[in-house]
Design goal:
Layout: E1 4-7, H1 8-18, H2 27-32, H3 41-54, H4 68-79, E2 82-90, E3 93-102, E4 105-112, E5 115-118, E6 122-123, H5 124-131, E7 145-149, H6 150-170, E8 177-178, H7 179-197, H8 207-222, E9 226-228, E10 235-238, H9 243-249, E11 255-263, E12 270-277, E13 280-286, E14 292-298, H10 301-316
Antiparallel strand pairs: 1-5, 2-3, 2-11, 3-4, 4-5, 4-6, 7-14, 8-10, 9-10, 11-12, 12-13, 13-14
Helix pairs in contact: 1-3, 5-10, 6-7, 6-8, 7-8
Length: 327
């Protein structure tokens, strides 16, 4: 059985029959809390009959009435102390995958309407190798390492989009664009990003925010990510310092992979954004400094896998507070 599908009532019945030690905050705790818990004994009997029809339960086998793999997965979901969320975006589409973790074991799961879907338990080392797609084949590496404010990154991303647009219109590379157009088009995106990271802002675009956008622009100029054309007043183009990062951002087949580890101890999630395009792989992480991104170009896919492995190792140490939910 590659994937188990169990209804809310079946999950409840299994939890009662197996006396699962459901921990607060675990996947099973949250899933059972999505609906009211009935108190009917007949519900348990009906659920067991349904599980038997699916082949998950064999009442005539006293030694092993339930599939061992099913029980292992369900038990882990009742005591997991960490979760890893993976979101893959490519060609305008997104796919989300979630993993519950306890120690060095994980279960891939999802919830949809009335059903909980579970995969068999897998090992931490095995999963780490699968998070980054095999087709992340890196052949270009300029060794870029830098830090920049979130606003500066959004501004640079918009600059790449303007350069691509101009290149498409004129059918050649190395095109320039107007600084005024860049700042105007980046303004709403920067504002939305700041509003998200700082939990809301007032109405309007303030003078201080305009000044911040100009400061971010100057940082990109100073770092060589953008350059101002001396022969054309107000014209800007991608600089040598930004060519490596501009390559994947300008790739029509750009893929982004967000990997986030959530722990129940209240610490900040460990989150990384992998950008893959133009045969280059970048990792973006939040710096301890406020609103700053650490941008690191990776030499190969294995470096990204090592980062995921470190996150899973951190998740394996996560523990719940004392206490068990009794059903």
């Amino acid at each position: 059985m590659s994937v188990y599908q169990i209804a809310h009532s079946e999950t409840l019945a299994l939890s009662i029959v197996l006396h699962l030690p459901i921990q607060p905050g675990s996947v099973l705790s949250v899933w059972l809390g999505t609906q009211e818990l009935p108190e009917s004994a007949e519900l348990t009997e009906a659920s067991l009959s349904s599980l038997a029809a699916k082949g998950y339960y064999s009442p005539k086998d006293p030694n092993q009435p339930f599939q061992p793999s099913l029980i292992k997965s369900l038990t882990l979901l009742s005591v997991n102390a960490a979760e890893m969320t993976v979101i893959l975006r490519r060609n305008g589409r997104a796919a989300l995958t979630r993993f519950a973790q306890r120690g060095k074991h994980l279960v891939q799961y999802s919830t949809q309407a009335e059903h909980l879907f579970m995969h068999p338990v897998t090992e931490q080392a095995v999963l780490a190798e699968k998070i980054l797609p095999q087709w992340f084949m890196v052949s270009q590496n300029e060794g870029l390492r830098t830090e920049m404010p979130l606003g500066a990154f959004v501004l640079f991303k918009q600059a790449c989009a303007l350069a691509d647009l101009t290149a498409a219109e004129l059918n050649f590379e190395g095109t320039h664009f107007a600084k005024s157009t860049l700042l105007e088009q980046a303004q709403p995106m920067v504002r939305a990003m700041v509003a998200f990271s700082r939990a809301g802002l007032g109405e309007g675009w303030s003078v201080s925010e305009q000044r911040q956008l100009e400061d971010d622009y100057r940082r990109l100029i100073g770092a060589g990510f953008l350059i101002e054309r001396a022969d054309l007043a107000g014209a800007v183009e991608i600089g040598a310092g930004g060519k490596a990062l501009a390559a994947p951002l300008s790739d029509a087949d750009l893929c982004s992979l967000i990997v986030s580890l959530q722990l129940w101890d209240g610490s900040c999630p460990k989150t990384g954004v992998f950008l893959y395009g133009a045969r280059r792989l970048f990792l973006l992480e939040a710096s301890p400094k406020a609103d700053v991104l650490v941008i690191r170009q990776l030499a190969n896919r294995q470096e990204g896998t090592a980062w995921v492995q470190d996150g899973l190792t951190e998740g394996s140490r996560a523990r719940h507070a004392d206490g068990v939910i009794a059903l």
